[in-house]
Amino acid sequence: MCRFLAYAGPPVFLEQLLVTPRASLIAQASAAREAKTAVNADGCGVGWYGEREEPGLYRGILPAWSDANLVSLCRQIRSRLFLAHVRAATSGEVSTANCHPFAQGRHLFMHNGQIGGYERLRRRVDALIPDALYPSRKGTSDSEAIFLAALGQGLERDPVGAMTQTLTQIVAAMSPADTGEPLRFAAVHTDGETLYAYRWASDGQPPSLYCREEGEGLVIASEPCDENSGRWAPVPSGGLLTVRGNGEVSLRMLEIDGAKAASPSRAA
To answer: What pairing do the DSSP bridges indicate for beta strands 183-190 and 195-201?
Structure first.
């Protein structure tokens, strides 16, 4: 599965979190420690907010450790809010259109996990995307489909409600197909002001997700990006972490129909 990192707080250079640490996200692309797949070589991307309402976006199919353009951007860009992702493909071929983060207007979204049996469910999941948004479907991944479906559910007006409804509908679509595989969902969505980090799975075993303070800001990551892992706190299974523009941080538990009780075990 993939690895990702998000930051919200006072502006910092992206390299401070994505390049410099010994266990940085770029380092995790070739040596992830808490993933079933240690190598995440199927592309990378970063989305950041600057002086404009809509975010900047860079995505490429090179492995993060060999993408000199990515490293150069990280050394030059300073941002108060950014998302970064290294991909190990579970659905969709290796292409720029399937790399995260995904952007639509002022919104950014990235995901680690999968819709179980997506190959057999793709038409059903794509049907959740409204006609008006379907032209924005550039790739073939389940992650992009989740994002566009949530936008169709009103992500701009009610981010948590829209995402919850989307996951509920996908779980309902999975049951008739009898895939025997879960929906696993560690994801980050932001509208440029508030950041939402989800850790949920239909079988109660979601991908790993951690957070820690970074000065006056907050870092959220698939796994610790430095050696001081004791400073990182796991987001609980079924949890939603919200970081508002004023620095307020809150945690709540999600209620999604079709999910099993949360398990104390942790999936990568």
So the answer is: antiparallel
Query: Would the pTM count as exceeding 0.90?
Result: yes
Indicate if the pLDDT at residue 168 is higher than 60. Answer: yes
pLDDT in tens, 87-131: 887 777 899 999 999 999 999 999 999 999 999 999 999 999 999
> Of 163, 171, 161, which Cα lies nearest the Cα of 146?
163
Contact status, residue 165 vs residue 151, Cβ threshold 8 Å = no
Range 3-253: architecture per CATH = 4-Layer Sandwich (3.60)
Task: Answer positive or negative: Cα dihedral of 27, 31, 35, 40.
Answer: positive
CB-CB contact of 107 with 155 (8 Å): yes
Q: What CA–CA distance (Å, rounded) separates 167 from 140?
A: 18
Residue 98 contacts residue 87 (beta carbons within 8 Å): yes
Handedness of CA 69, 75, 80, 85 (dihedral sign): positive
Amino acid letter, 118? Y
Report CA 136 to chain centroid distance, whole Å: 18
Whether 90 contacts 182, CB under 8 Å:
no
In DSSP terms, which residues pair with 137 in a beta bridge? none
